[in-house]
Amino acid sequence: MAYYDLTTHLFLQIAIILLSCQLIIWIGTQYFEQTEVVCEMLTGIVLGPSIFGMLFPELQYWIFPNTPLILENNNSIPNPSMTLLFSLSQIGIVLYMFITGLEFNIDIIRKKFKSVIFICSSGILTPFVIGALFITFIDTKELIIDNVSKIVAAIYFGSAISITAFPVLVRIMDEKRITKSSLGSLALISASIEDAFAWGLIALVLTISIHNPLIVYITLLGTLLYVILMIFLGKILRKVFPSHFNEKINPTRKIVSFIFIILMLCAVIVDKIGLYSAFGSFIAGTIMPKGKFAEYLRAKLQFFSVSCLLPLFFTFTGLNTNFYLINTYYLWMITFLIIVVAVSSKLIPCIITSHSCGINWRDATAYGVLMNTRGVMELIILNIGLQNHIISPTLFTMMVIMTLVTTTMASPLLTFILKKNK
Hints:
The chain has helices at about 5-30, 35-45, 50-55, 55-65, 80-105, 105-135, 150-160, 165-175, 180-210, 215-240, 255-275, 275-285, 290-320, 330-355, 360-370, 375-385, 395-410, 410-420; strands at about 70, 75.
């Protein structure tokens, strides 16, 4: 494709993705009690080979071509059209994780850490252990890449099962108007701790999967130094630019531009360390001064990143999801078991431990439903596993199905539980 053809095709892809998103959002919110983010996830599946590709294969291939280009030296590169779409999707997820970091208030965790650690630990450790044991004792020939060790597979799968989608949780609770309730506070704190735990495990998986011990040590040391540097940077920003981060003054255009420079450099540094760029942007968001500054910055970034760039990430995930890879009864049985393991290992322990700590059954059940929501965070982890050749496209598809099931069930179940004894 010529340069002009590539840019024109990219404009067409973005228009089709955003139009499809708005259509599915209208259907999902009007008739199925779903949140917008769930509808955006479903849009990716609809536009992928599983539905659009099945109904109109030639048209789907023309819009989203996946054949690599063969160069003169017989090397191949990904299709330029999809490379551009992938790059934009990564910018979207970096911005989204930065926004998530802005919402991540570590002070809340410090204040109530002791009171919720018992409740929260059951929602982390139980699914992690059960998930790790599950993937260890089943036949993973078609699920895990050959050169990936059992311990890496166990840690990765346990992490993927135990995660809760903090950003999706915030959006669901905002719609249900329970963010400032005791149930909402507990859910936010728990999701924050669980996401931090899962990110730490994913970082461990990525370092272990590198077979060169020197690179492993460099990655671990680099990660530690990066976190320390970002904490130090957050303190510097408050002292050097006190007027810019004042609670009563909106940030200037220059300071917002400066924040973008920091964000992009963080993504580069973390990629060079050997981790995922979204992890770097999430840490960058957490160290930013909270209060009016964070609210202003989030409001400015959220409209464009969530409305335009994030659907590109969902669509790219959907293009890698092919239901036809699950082509045997055995694989469908494994998919069903993954869903059962994911739901039961998360939902039941969260309900029981929260009720044992004095929360009534209704709120305990609602808390369990919220913790069982996986959403965007799960898709990020799945993309990390696929891009780093830890899981196969088949297991990727299975886990995407599990993510859709656990996320779509959250909103209607929560509506039913909260209305029952309103």
